[in-house]
Amino acid sequence: MSAPTPQYLRFTSHKSLTTRLVLSTLTGRPLHISQIRSSSPTAPGLAAHEISFLRLLESVTNGTALQISYTGTTLTYHPGLITGSVAGLGAAGDVIEHVLPESNTRGVSYFLLPLCMLAPFSKAPVNVRLSGPGVITAATAAGDMSADSVRTAILPLYEHFGILASKLELRILQRSCAGPGGKGGGGMVELRFGAQVRLPKTLHLNRSGGKIKRIRGVAYCTGVSASNNARMIHTARGILNPMVSDVHVAAQYDQAPLVPSNDKANPTAKRRTGVGFGLSLVAESSAHGVVYSADAVSPHQGGVTPEDIGKQCAYQLLETISHGGCVTRAAAPTILVLMAMGSEDVGRVRLGRDVVGTQESVDLGRDLKNFGASSWGLRDADDDETGDVIVSVKGLGVGNVGRKVA
Prior knowledge:
Elements: E1 9-12, H1 17-27, E2 31-34, H2 48-60, E3 61-62, E4 65-68, E5 75-78, E6 81-82, E7 96-99, H3 109-118, E8 126-131, H4 147-154, E9 168-174, E10 188-193, E11 204-205, E12 212-222, H5 227-240, E13 247-254, E14 258-260, E15 270-272, E16 276-285, E17 291-297, H6 306-322, H7 332-341, E18 346-351, H8 353-356, H9 359-370, E19 377-380, E20 389-394
Parallel strand pairs: 1-2, 7-8, 11-18, 12-13
Antiparallel strand pairs: 2-5, 3-6, 4-5, 8-10, 9-10, 12-16, 14-15, 16-17, 18-20, 19-20
Helix pairs in contact: 1-3, 5-6, 7-9
């Protein structure tokens, strides 16, 4: 008797690719995605960073099978079991080494955020080291947040779901900004996610966002004068100090990383890349577990002063705070996916109206519905006049297959 034909969930376009792959892996539903940049005359099909993410998914899972068409415009994905960093299944020791290609244009958070969504449901701890000439630890023009913001603004949110923050660690071993043309960087980061749970707890984060009590941040520069850090910090503090007295921004200086120069005449030659500077700010509220983040970085082509970056990041943080709610636009997908995959109870989270109304949030709600999750319940927060929205999400009870009780 032949095996039954799998029922594919069919999507088109490359948008929300990582989210759909994560939901497919968590729910076990195979995917068929077509028309991936099929209308592009110069670069049709999957991009380098998307193929690299697929290889990363293969590394942390067992039994995953994928097929990519000759032109790269069609992808078929059969998810496997999330095993994590298991020796013998791609891990060297207890760490999976994943090399990003030099043509990568996305920041390291493009890979870290989906990986963190999968890690709580893994059979073993997820320890991944991202290295190679394509790692960009800074923020990017594509909208990716920096590795510092992931560490200070995203990972602490997992405590709401009963995941111990003491077992979560993100090490930035080598900093790097985007290289020439916005491609590559040469940085290195290591994620150690050792907190696996049977089911994430139900989230109830529907209270007021509170008032900002402190602001922390990191100013970083690679391959340029360390005085740029002081200039960014001075400008940002000049804007933020009149509103919040407790502002502390650390300064971090690294040499520009070395990457192979790809010179045929001298194969061993190396060059410096990833030169630039940037600023990451995080505002902590008086309400427990509520943080707001902002990132700004110098463009790869240059022409921007450190004062401009400090001013841009400070105003961006104020704009993020003005959106309201308890979760920022960058952290909302992580929170909503974990709520949908959690225990079969109704959780609530308070989001700003400008966060709920974004195209990313609408697409995420539609994708969750396609994967079997319940529709969201939306109502206005009536305890104040902020205009926030209370989003109610009923969990699927998917849980961790590797930790099911017999």
